[in-house]
Design brief:
Elements lengths: L22 H15 L11 H8 L3 H13 L3 E4 L3 E4 L19 H4 L8 H8 L24 H13 L15 H15 L8 E4 L2 H12 L5 E6 L3 H9 L3 E8 L2 E2 L1 H7 L5 E4 L13 H14 L2 E5 L24 E6 L11 E4 L5 H12 L4 H12 L2 H27 L4 E2 L8 E6 L5 H10 L5 E2 L12 E5 L5 H21 L5
Parallel strand pairs: 4-5, 4-7, 7-8, 8-9
Antiparallel strand pairs: 1-2, 3-10, 5-6, 9-10, 11-12, 12-14, 13-14
Amino acid sequence: MAKTITAGIFSSFALNEQSPQPAYRQIYNELRRAMLSGRIPPGTRLPATRVLAGELTVSRNTIVSVFDLLAQEGYVVSRVGAGTYVADDLPEDHQLPEFDARPASSSTQLASADALSLRGRALARLSLTSGPANPAAFTPDIPAYDAFPIEIWSRIMANAWRNISLDLLGYADPAGQLPLRAAIARHLRAGRLVDCEPEQVIITSGSQQSFDLTARLLLDPGDPVWIEEPGYIGSRAAFTAAGARLIPVKVDSEGIDPEAGKLHEPAPRIVLVAPSRQYPLGMTLSMRRRDALIELSRSTGAWIVEDDYDSEFRYRGRPLPALQSMSSDARVIYLGTFSKSLLPAFRLGYLVVPPALAASFRTAKTVIDRHPPLLEQIALLEFMEKGYFASHIRRMRQLYEVRQRTLVGLLREHLRGFLEVQEADSGMHLVGMLRDGVNDVQFCAALAEAGVVARPLSPYYSMQPARHGLILGFAAVPPAGLHAGVQRLAAVAARFDRELPHSA
């Protein structure tokens, strides 16, 4: 018979009413830590939601949200008529010491969380989940695998290995191959008006490493960092791991609000912003707000970290200039990635740093991972120089616009009154706002059981979200998949809708 853990697992835990995290997130974190540390072993049956709710003096719906989120991420499994159990295979099992119920010896104590530094503990508490390997409706942030020119890319990669010279087989430039950095600089000058020379371009293994590298070089523990509220979880995690003091700053229809930020912290060390397309809500930072951020940087010395993650995919209107291009004396770190424009498995991104910092970033890159992968750099250079990259972007822009229009039409036809959606001017995903009373974490868990992938909006808030919604990717899904996905989504929505109160 499976062991049942009692609600006493929370005997040393108390909800922090002053925390910016909602109650369900605090409880989720505590349960997850208990599972990963072995305090609640695999196969253990968890208490009923009513029991836990009574123990913690919260609503049963709060505990249901916790269980749904744990199930969605693979920590627990529900068995009809038998309860909820800790999964036999936890998502991070491969990273954790094996749990042993015997008293810890001095050697096993060294493997416990107590052995970690303060920064190590903060890092171990963070978790970034990845989507499914194969794109499904409505996986966000995934490009169209079915439209990628794989034959051209395979041929270029084969040529890169076949024609490689012996002098390239040793350790390479930590900042990346100079010809590729020059090609990226030309691309950015033409498409984003970014003012840079090849020496300012630092090749990384993607946006996450770019955030990490920037945080290591520009932050001391406790330094204040403005983050968009809601905002991208990956950047938030990187700056949290570096010991930053995160200051959530609300966004509205014009993007991040500098005046609101000044009320909480008038002199941030860093402002982390996605001006071309805010993640996840999708608005573009207005020119008025861009000018305000540039002035803030000049007056306080704040660094602006400009995340330009998918600016290639704009469907209407001309893009506003990059913040980096707006002033020669502003302290701007500009970053981009090829994961959205090419493939997620293609782990190359880039930073554009001021000339005075280029040598420091190059040296720090050596310490972190020596240099970026060489063959991919050689192949990408040929892909760009022969015009394949530009033509691929043009095709994807047209394809994604059609797929977005298809999805919006289907959602308005089948989910009117339950999910509110608007067409986006750019990007690869939509945000749909759920009708009042629907918990997005619970709803996404139900969608997952129906074979539909969607991300809940609420975890992207550091504080209590104003509304719940869905992040729905459309770029990777052909029309047939969009139709099938919306039908399943509508079926789940109908079930939730029946359980909600309706006005007479």
